[in-house]
């Protein structure tokens, strides 16, 4: 078997999941996806905190 490749977003991107949309998107670090309703994005990126996030674009 080999070694496991790293899963998830590249180091220069943050990964977000929306359960209502059933999809994952990536953004620049400290940026949320657009706040279109429903705004249910969950940050998946390890080592990042939602408190570090800038407000979403309008």
Ordered list of secondary-structure elements with their pairings:
Elements: E1 14-18, E2 23-27, E3 42-43
Antiparallel strand pairs: 1-2, 1-3
Major sheet summary line: 3 strands, antiparallel
Order of helices and strands: EEE
Strand order of the largest sheet: 2-1-3
- Please give the number of β-strands: 3
Q: Calculate Rg over CA atoms.
A: 13 Å
- Taken from the alpha-carbon principal axes, the silhouette is globular
Give the oligomeric state of the chains in this entry, treating copies of one chain as homo and distinct chains as hetero.
single chain
Beta-strand share of residues:
15-25%
| Poorly predicted runs | none
Return the structural class: mainly beta
> Helical segment tally?
0
Distance between the termini: 47 Å
Q: Helicity range of the residues?
A: under 10%
């Amino acid at each position: 078997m080999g070694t496991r490749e790293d899963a998830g977003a590249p180091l220069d991107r943050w990964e977000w999941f929306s359960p209502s949309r059933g999809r994952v998107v990536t953004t620049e670090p400290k940026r949320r996806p657009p706040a279109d309703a429903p705004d249910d994005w969950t940050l998946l990126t390890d080592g990042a905190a939602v408190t570090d996030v800038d407000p979403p674009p309008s």
